[in-house]
Amino acid sequence: MYIVILAGGSGTRFWPLSRQHSPKQLMSVLGGKSMLQRTVERVLPLKPKRLLVVTNALQSRETARQLEEYQQAARIDIVAEPVGRNTAPAIGLAATIIAGHDPAGLMVVLPADHYIADEEGFRDSLRTAREAALNGYLVTLGITPTRPETGYGYIEADAELRGNGPYPVRRFVEKPSLDKALTFLAAGNFYWNSGMFVWRADVILDQILAHMPTLAARLAELTFTADVWAPEDLKPQIARLYQEVAPESIDFGVMEKADNVMVIPTNFGWSDVGSWNALPEVIPGDDDGNLAINTRQLVTIDATGCLVYGSDKVAALIGVRDLVVVDCPDALLVCPKERAQDVKKIVEELERQGRKEYL
């Protein structure tokens, strides 16, 4: 089993903590280890043959530093993308590298910045996915929904007469309206799209060839030295590849079009930790629902449902409700929880203004 960790995102919804050089996955958003380190530790009990971490060139040095302590437990290679091109080129590149050594090698593809409460349950789900993937299916992990969430994509499964799965996928659905999300929840055969996949390297490359021929052609041009596991040697070729391919997600480019997709229902306490208001889902607050991270102390008077991320300071809240307060050395964010998804708009505005020092 080969583990591919996608760690090239910028985490704009976690500004001002998350920046281009130090994005969410490299930060201790939940306290303790970074989210990338937690992801690596989560898969080490599976005894993977190798880990490939695909990251951005701006983040590769810090990524390597954070993963150095795990090199004794597993061989970890870092592949640096010169620019972001979404998930399809990153996954195709990783599959090409793995196939150069082991064409039918089993790949597990994971984001670097997710939270999972039941880690053994997560590993059991990957073990369950193994058989279907080895038989030539593209397998995705679907999260059993607990609420009518409008911020996630959904997967509709053909769940009739198939026990506990895996189930054939009928369709992928983009982020729905509340009415549709309520319908999906009631139907019982819709699952949140986790963005976690299991498949053989040759199978995903065949599907990229079938549905993304331009990307497949560019990937086929990659040539390896005697040592396939030398990503640094591929650097000039990767630079050319990323100049010639368009940004595209693996969901849209392949998964929504392929006819050999299976979904495994899971329930291991998952969150994509997509924005500040997701943290109370994974970290318990106090009796008033207030949550403090990286603060020396939180003092409240008539304050409820607030999240404070501090800079090792005492934080005080008086008479406020459902606020997000993030204090960094050079920036301060204050917003209602319900507007936390709009934090990315601040990043877009700073970029428009040319304030690169804050990105």
TrEMBL record:
The keyword Nucleotidyltransferase applies. Residues 298-350 form the MannoseP isomerase/GMP-like beta-helix domain. Pfam families: ManC_GMP_beta-helix, NTP_transferase. Gene3D superfamilies: Spore Coat Polysaccharide Biosynthesis Protein SpsA, Chain A. Transmembrane segments: none annotated. Keywords: Nucleotidyltransferase, Transferase. Residues 4-283 form the Nucleotidyl transferase domain. InterPro entries: GMPP_N, ManC/GMP-like_b-helix, Mannose-6P_isomerase_type2, NTP_transferase_dom, Nucleotide-diphossugar_trans. It comes from the Bacteria. One of its GO terms (molecular function) is nucleotidyltransferase activity. The keyword Transferase applies. PANTHER family: MANNOSE-1-PHOSPHATE GUANYLYLTRANSFERASE. This is Mannose-1-phosphate guanylyltransferase. The lineage of its organism: Bacteria, Pseudomonadati, Thermodesulfobacteriota, Desulfuromonadia, Geobacterales.
